[in-house]
Amino acid sequence: MQDTAAASEITEAQELPSRSWSRAVGDLTAGWRQRPLWGHLGWQDIKQGYRRSVIGPFWITISLAVQAIGMGILYAALFGQELHDFLPYLAVGLIIWQFMAACINDGAEVFIRNEGLIKHLPAPLSVHIFRLVWRQLLFFGHNVLVWVALMLIFPPQAPRAFGWSSLLAFPALALIVLNGVWVAVLIGIVATRYRDVPPVSASIVTLMFFMTPIVWDYEQLRSTPGTVGERARLAELNPFLHYVEILRRPMIGESFELRHWVVTLAITVVGWAVALLVLRNYRARVSYWV
Amino acid sequence: MVSIDVRGACVDFPIFDAKTRSLKKALLGTMGRAGGKIGIDAKVPIIEALRNITLSLRHGDRVGLVGHNGAGKSTLLRLLSGIYEPTRGSSRIVGKVAPVFDLGVGMDPEISGYENIIIRGLFLGMTRKQMEARTEEIAEFSELGDYLSMPLRTYSTGMRVRLALGVVTSIDPEILLLDEGIGAVDTAFLEKARDRLTALVERSGILVFASHSDEFLVELCTSALWLDHGEIREEGALRTVLSHYKGKDPFTNRVQEAAR
Fold it and tell me: Going edge to edge, which strands form the sheet with B62-66?
């Protein structure tokens, strides 16, 4: 009975004009209420990729571990870094990057791929968004096992150390997830209208991977005297750096840096404002565009 | 209380071809105008799928949708389900909507029949628990037996339709929107499905049913709506509208058959 009440509540709102803030916010809250649906679908997405394989979704963990170790050994040698410090740094960076990159790349195709569902079953648009972000969070959860293993093998050594500030990893992850939602909403709607967006955003994401300090150590380069240090400082202009840093620093036991939080929080506010505006104006158009 | 109120609703589809849909054209288009060149007409061609639709449905209404292919029957059903919001005009839908347009959508070939029952049910607005309680009944109705634990890709088309029909007819919708396209089932099963379909229609508050089959329409509906080129041509009692649409009284045949 309770569900029926919730459902009529959703449809009740439809008397309001299509382009209104309450309809945009209503889409998000109605989507949130359908947690069982997207929660189930998100899991299904993960299991689907590994059906009939013996160790299943743990291939996610293994492939990340292989990537981190392979790249870690290579780049530690190239940059003259100690593997003990560099490997956790790289692995955590990769885990965070995978989440963010997927929110952008999958986000660009989130409505296009779900065309069948959108045209046949009335559901809030945000259901598809939440399914996507939830799936990526589950990927993240599998990947985090690599971090656990690395922390056991290579515990942080001075000056790195775990402390109370390490708990900032939780709000940091929450903030990144919150950003994943607005990014997927925004790029999802724009890409449904303009089909050139997915390939363009994919290539930008690839480029940004190399521009963001994941395989290279930003702190180390910055302290290098001369032009290299100056160039490295330009990396501060890259918003991805700040997102990676708010989560990576507590996860590998580095100290708290306020500026990363300030930048990411500011982007979160602006990003959500833009995404809500786009959702307000074009939410009802998506089913026409797909 | 369930209700559908549509006032002067239009559904216009923009037709983006490969060029207009691209960002390049949008950007270059603006540049062209700024440069004072004779710009490419920026306006996207539209198809008026529905024009000026006004209708009001209340609890107990059983409406059959008739019209030629492309008359807008499916689009109207999608408008009534809330998938399309009118480009002009307004629509107000109060009640839990269950659209049954394509039995295949929301079905995943890689997962088992049981899991598909749950997912399909969730999409139709049921909860997990409600669906779990119904699996037994669906299994019995669909006669799939042990096949339900097999992945859906091992099913024949007919078996898939059985499963989908089983799920769809087990829910309790307030507004039921049915689009024709239930085929590929053997006759004996269809008889069985018909009973369940009739029971489903009786449970639901409002029914809108798009069909070309007089037989189905006569059985399930009391009134009809004739759509022609996206507009309502006629609205009224099933018999009257159907006779005008077909040019003959569909009931005479049935009476004769019954008499025989």
Answer: B97-100, B175-179, B206-210, B62-66, B223-228, B231-237
